[in-house]
Amino acid sequence: MEMLKVSQLSKSYGKQVMFSALNHISFSIEAGELVGVMGPSGSGKTTLLNMISTVDQPTSGEIYIEGNNPLSLNGDKLALFRRRELGFVFQDFNLLDTLTLGENVILPLALDGVPVKEQDRRLTKVANILGIKHLLSKRTFEVSGGEAQRTAIARAIIHKPALLLADEPTGNLDSNASRIVMELFEKINQEEQVTTMMVTHDPLAASYCNRILFIKDGSIYNEIYKGSSRQQFYQQIIDVLSLLGGASREF
Ligand SMILES: Nc1ncnc2c1ncn2[C@@H]1O[C@H](COP(=O)(O)OP(=O)(O)OP(=O)(O)O)[C@@H](O)[C@H]1O
């Protein structure tokens, strides 16, 4: 089943002088996939994520999430769609400092009026999956970046979204914390069938995905699938990035 379908999506910025950030991009993500999006700085990755997460409108083209077109919704209906069908993980965690980590995780359920007993049941489940049960009464300043990101992932999946969107989820983490976070993305993908699309500059993080879409100048440049070995996939990713051009720090 197609979880995400992007059809002929284009986005231009500017009025007198138009700049085309995305040019007729089309691709799909099937239920249960873990897909990475890579490309040089300025290639359009954030623009694409902003269209899919419905925070911005495309100039033309269509987006379907589980067969629904969120761009046809507005106001409260769009906010509700975003809250129920999408989960977000950001580079800088975006946790609320005034709440405990546990309160942060249940926020999407509390906003949706889910009964407290059900909130507690789901909190226990995701806290076990993400290994953060012992941290739930702590606050953001009392935990490491890796622990904060694991909390953010728990919050992003507690309401069982159709699609989990992640923007540079390892961008603020050291290599050890990055590996743990990526193993958890892999685990929730494999064990909980969470369909995920992740923008990343980090080839090691990308090697945990099943498929990578490479974007260059607002168009799909290439896509590669993981075979049996993550190490081999990592090397393939490095090879495509070097073909894409640009200094490695630009990725
Ligand atoms: N609001 C905007 N107005 C005008 N141009 C924009 C706007 N947002 C992005 N752009 C331009 O669109 C292009 C794509 O930007 P985008 O942020 O999507 O790239 P990116 O691949 O996410 O880059 P990075 O890896 O550096 O975050 C860039 O050339 C950028 O300058």
UniProtKB/TrEMBL annotation:
Gene3D superfamilies: P-loop containing nucleotide triphosphate hydrolases. GO terms for molecular function: ATP binding; ATP hydrolysis activity; transmembrane transporter activity. Residues 4-242 form the ABC transporter domain. CDD domains: ABC_MJ0796_LolCDE_FtsE (cd03255). The keyword Nucleotide-binding applies. Keywords: ATP-binding, Nucleotide-binding, Transport. The keyword Transport applies. InterPro entries: AAA+_ATPase, ABC_transporter-like_ATP-bd, MacB-like_ATP-bd, P-loop_NTPase. It holds the Pfam family ABC_tran. One of its GO terms (cellular component) is membrane protein complex. Belongs to the ABC transporter superfamily. This is ABC transporter ATP-binding protein. It comes from Paenibacillus anaericanus.
